Structure formats: structure tokens, C-alpha cells
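forwarding from the other thread:

> can someone predict this with zinc ion?

sure thing
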Amino acid sequence: MKFTNSPELTQEEIDYFRTKLEDMQKQIFEESGETVQEMKNRNKEFPDPSDRAHLEAESITTLRIRDRERKLLKKIGEALKRIENGEYNVCEECEELIRKERLDARPVTTLCINCKEKEEQMEKTQHT
Ligand SMILES: [Zn+2]
């Protein structure tokens, strides 16, 4: 995708980002579907209790991944809503337009690079 120089999104670019977000959504659904299926299969294959312990440890990892997926799905949903409202590329903090290259790399971002850096710096200060 070649972006125009204008900071505003063209209709074509809006469509591009919408498709990109919808593809991400689809991919997560497909992957999580597989995960559930894999868990079911393994339960049948390993009735041995020691294997079951191993299996449970693995399920926790799977659940963590699924938790991350859920969060990402929520972010994708919010991003799609912002596209509908025509504010997809508007920074939540300063209301400047987010660069298209940044949106392309991180389609669910709600902050421009300046605000993101500020936020990261704040987080660093809080942790030290
Ligand atoms: Zn900003």
C-alpha cells in the first residue's frame, strides 16, 4: 500500500485499514478455534495423570494467550468503530493525526508517536 502525502485518510486508505483489521480479527478467530480443538484432542490422547499435569500447565499458557487474544480483539473492535466514526487516525491524547506508516505498523494504536513516547516515559518513571 502506497500512502498519499496528505495527513487525512483517503477512502481507499480507510478501506485498506478496515480490511487489515478485519483480517487480524479473522486470523485470531481461526487460531483460537484451533487451540480449543487441540486441547480437546490432547485430552483424549493422554489419559495418564502425569501427562494430564503437563497438559494443565500447557492449558494455562493457552489461556494466557487467549487472554491476550481477547484484549487484542477488543482493541481491533474499537479501531473498527473509530474507522466508522471517521476518527481512526486521530490521536486520543493530542488529537493530532497519527501517521499512516505508524497505523500500518500498529493498526490498533490510538496514540501518535509523540504521545506514545511520552506514555512510555511515564511508565518508566513509575516503575523506577
Ligand atoms: Zn498525540
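The two ends are 41 Å apart (CA to CA). thats all i got for now
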